């Protein structure tokens, strides 16, 4: 049993919004690679939905051979799988963009990970069959509300192309870390889409529909789109796969430290392949050294890394981390700037003072 005193020393979420609730993980102070649901970041577009769990059903309809409505009890009895997944909000690190972009000014904590258990979507679709004309699979959440820019009410809905939807690791999850998914994180059923930004993992699933055309809902055609130009929409393309990225967890930015030996630690992650290398610089990028990082373990989680730094000269230092994945993608010095501030992936930096 945990000591109640220990809870007094636990980190807490940083709040960016109350209505709707948006809070980020205290990423610098995590002591575990599978975090509790209490420290998992929250990203919402609307107020939490009102659901009746005792009468919960999941319809699968549209271009299917046999439309079917699954009960929650039926779903949990089907063959399941558990996968470790890091979910990153597409707006993670938005506050670091220059020039600034509008939207919640997330720091480095709009990312969390743990173990999700659920049924592969393909298993459910085997029971309904698929029409040859189906091109995408649409997921509608119970959360809904009015958008001021479009002056209309919408539910949170997004689609996946068939290739991604039919990946055996795209699951309809009902547990997180071996417990029912907490209500604020999508209970009773949440879509989990490994390697894509978190907006794809629709919470509180209301229904699944197979459709023949490209879905154009606002959370797919207006938001979660990269707009490279500030003044117009030319060159726009959708936000999908997570960029290769890293974060220095310790020391924290603007820390004051003594001379001696310090352990620089952090995490690295990617949406393609695995992390193959993490490099650290302690002289503002002049020289780079390999950090020790966890080898790939077949999951979709992040890789923790450490680097031992011996420093004996007082002064101000810029520490940097740079990750490379098995597809050869490496963090750039400058991020890909886009008007809505998605996918920040530049080399991470913290500034420290040695006394």
UniProtKB/TrEMBL annotation:
One of its GO terms (biological process) is sulfur compound metabolic process. It comes from the Bacteria. Residues 240-343 form the Moybdenum cofactor oxidoreductase dimerisation domain. Residues 1-22 are annotated as: Disordered. Gene3D superfamilies: 2.60.40.650, Oxidoreductase, molybdopterin-binding domain. InterPro entries: Ig_E-set (IPR014756), MoCF_OxRdtse_dimer (IPR005066), Mopterin_OxRdtase_euk (IPR008335), OxRdtase_Mopterin-bd_dom (IPR000572), OxRdtase_Mopterin-bd_sf (IPR036374). Pfam families: Mo-co_dimer, Oxidored_molyb. Keywords: Metal-binding, Molybdenum, Oxidoreductase. Residues 45-218 form the Oxidoreductase molybdopterin-binding domain. One of its GO terms (molecular function) is heme binding. Its cofactor is Mo-molybdopterin. This is Sulfite oxidase. It comes from Halalkalibacter okhensis.
């Amino acid at each position: 049993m945990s000591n109640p005193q220990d809870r007094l020393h636990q980190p807490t979420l940083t709040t960016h919004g109350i209505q709707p609730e948006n809070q980020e993980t205290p990423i610098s102070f995590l002591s575990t690679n599978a975090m509790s649901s209490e420290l998992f970041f929250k990203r919402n577009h609307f107020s939490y939905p009102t659901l009746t769990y005792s009468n919960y059903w999941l319809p699968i309809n549209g271009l299917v051979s046999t439309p079917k409505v699954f009960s929650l009890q039926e779903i949990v009895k089907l063959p399941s799988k558990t996968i470790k997944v890091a979910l990153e909000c597409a707006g993670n690190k938005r506050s670091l963009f220059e020039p600034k972009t509008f939207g919640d000014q997330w720091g480095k904590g709009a990312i969390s990970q743990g173990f999700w258990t659920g049924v592969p979507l393909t298993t459910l679709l085997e029971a309904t069959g698929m029409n040859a004309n189906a091109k995408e699979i649409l997921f509608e959440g119970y959360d809904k509300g009015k958008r001021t820019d479009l002056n209309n009410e919408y539910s949170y809905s997004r689609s996946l192309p068939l290739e991604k939807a039919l990946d055996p690791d795209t699951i309809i999850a009902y547990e997180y870390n071996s417990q029912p998914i907490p209500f604020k994180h999508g209970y009773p059923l949440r879509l989990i889409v490994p390697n894509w930004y978190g907006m794809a993992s629709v919470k509180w699933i209301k229904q699944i529909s197979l459709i023949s055309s490209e879905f154009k809902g606002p959370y797919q055609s207006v938001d979660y789109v990269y707009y490279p130009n500030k003044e117009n929409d030319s060159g726009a393309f959708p936000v999908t796969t997570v960029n290769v990225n890293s974060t220095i967890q310790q020391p924290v930015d603007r820390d004051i430290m003594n001379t001696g030996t310090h352990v620089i630690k952090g995490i690295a992650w990617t949406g393609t392949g695995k992390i193959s290398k993490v490099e650290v610089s302690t002289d503002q990028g002049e020289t780079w050294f390999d950090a020790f990082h966890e080898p790939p373990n077949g999951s979709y989680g992040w890789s923790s890394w450490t680097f031992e730094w011996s420093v004996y000269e007082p002064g101000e230092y810029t520490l940097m981390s740079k990750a490379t994945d098995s597809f050869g993608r490496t963090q750039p010095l400058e991020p890909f700037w886009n008007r809505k501030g998605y996918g920040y992936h530049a080399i991470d930096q913290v500034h420290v003072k040695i006394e």
